[in-house]
Amino acid sequence: MIGGLLGYHWAFSEAIEMQDSVLIQIAGLVQGGSLTGGRALHGVDLDAEVWLIDQATAPQASEDDARLWSLKDGLALAVRNGQPIRVLLRTRADGARFAVAQRTSVRDEIASDMAFRTVLPIAALIPCLLLVTAIVIARSLRPMVHLAGDLDGRRADDMTLLPTAQMPSELHPFIASINGLLQRMRLLMDQQRRFVAEAAHELRTPITALSLQAENLAAVDLPSSARDRVGSLRQGIGRTRHLLEQLLALARQDAGQADAVAMPVVRLDDVAKEVVAGLLPEAASRGIDLGFVLVEPAVVRSEAVMPAALLRNLLDNALRFTSQGGRIDAWVYRDGDAAILQIEDSGPGVAPEEIGRIFEPFFRGQHQEGDGVGLGLSIVKRIVDRLGGSVEVANMTEGGRTGLRVLVKLPAATA
Ligand SMILES: Nc1ncnc2c1ncn2[C@@H]1O[C@H](COP(=O)(O)OP(=O)(O)OP(=O)(O)O)[C@@H](O)[C@H]1O
Ligand SMILES: [Mg+2]
């Protein structure tokens, strides 16, 4: 804007100076005798309206004329017929004076016209330049936007390095820094996981020893007051063992690298039958009807222990939250490319405000039955993620019944 105004101003002054030099050239011609006065010099430029006035022939009636001829030779501003003019006065060799004049309004009009034509192309170019600049910036920032999208869409623990291939070289140092940070974070997370796993592992032996001692104590003939204390001691040790087992299971899932293709194939239906069979005595002792509604052959690629750990945690919850006389139904089947595992219980279900949090480690909702530590569903989620599947949890409300439905979908493999 300022540039445009300055450009206009300069071009305007230039045009005014050019018109002065035209007046000087005409005066030169007149002095040389090539032109004689009292008329408009249309030969110069029809629009320019340059007049040659001889003092000898021009009428000198008005005050304006008297003032004009009183001026000294040279360029000056004057007034003629009530209009401002630019005038160049000269004296011929014989002493006769003449003036070459041009109306100021005409001069200004010509100058502003010229100045406008000088500035116009630049003014027209500016929006084009802005548009081109915006396009170039948007194009060069596109890889950055892709990178940001990639990072935003990641799981919190996904530390895969960013690719530098097909990225503009200006971005390489930036990508290298982000990758360095990702690597350091991966190292830190690995260290933490290893610490938790090792701590849990180290604690396992003394807890097993304690638990054995408690068992031995239970076999001893004790007064009933001491027997109660031994009972709560064994319960506490059992809870601690369960916590350690869950921590170890979670650490094991966290430490493993997800590479489902390299994993062996596992029969989900066989694993399910085994796990359910193992839990039948407990279910029977509490009068819970645990069984399959459907078991079809379904195969997944997985480490051998993963489907069992997944099922055990889900069925453990179902058993824990289902009261005496309730029922637990299980399904294993194939649906297109997915191996489906579904479990329904007749417990109280999960409070709607808690359902979004139950996969968080150590989260235990308002129903805190038994020795839970809040890690079971975190282990389930971790396993499902590593196998490239999904898990959904919903409260069942159909027909006035209550209970939780858990639906696990895993990519089916070919046997
Ligand atoms: N079948 C269910 N019915 C009702 N509530 C459930 C059920 N399954 C899970 N929950 C709720 O979700 C919470 C988290 O479950 P999760 O399995 O992660 O932990 P936990 O069972 O308390 O402990 P852990 O499994 O580590 O022994 C539970 O404390 C409970 O409040
Ligand atoms: Mg649990």
Describe the overall structure.
This protein has 415 residues and is α+β, with helices and mostly antiparallel strands. The protein has helices at residues 2-31, 63-69, 104-152, 172-219, 224-255, 268-285, 305-321, 376-386; strands at residues 39-40, 50-54, 74-80, 83-91, 97-103, 265-267, 289-295, 299-301, 327-335, 338-345, 390-395, 404-411. It has three domains: 2-114, Beta-Lactamase (2-Layer Sandwich); 172-254, Signal transduction histidine kinase, dimerisation/phosphotransfer (DHp) domain (Helix Hairpins); 259-411, Heat Shock Protein 90. A hairpin with an 8-residue loop joins strand 11 (390-395) and strand 12 (404-411). Helix 4 (172-219) packs antiparallel against helix 5, helix 5 (224-255) packs parallel to helix 8 (376-386) and helix 7 (305-321) runs antiparallel to helix 8. The chain starts with a helix and ends with a strand. It binds adenosine-5'-triphosphate and magnesium ion (MG). The site of magnesium ion (MG) has 5 residues, from helix 7.
Summed up, the domain count is 3
SS-based structural class? alpha+beta
CATH topology of the largest domain: Heat Shock Protein 90
- The rounded distance between the terminal residues' Cα atoms is 74 Å
N-to-C SSE string, H for helix and E for strand: HEEHEEEHHHEHEEHEEHEE
DSSP strand (E) fraction? Answer: 15-25%
Q: How can the largest sheet be summarized?
A: 5 strands, antiparallel
CATH class of the largest domain: Alpha Beta
Globally, the shape reads rod-shaped
β-strand number: 12
Q: What are the bound molecules?
A: adenosine-5'-triphosphate, magnesium ion
Number of helices: 8
CATH architecture verdict of the largest domain: 2-Layer Sandwich
What is the CATH homology-level superfamily of the largest domain? Histidine kinase-like ATPase, C-terminal domain
- The neighbouring-strand order within the major sheet is 1-2-5-4-3
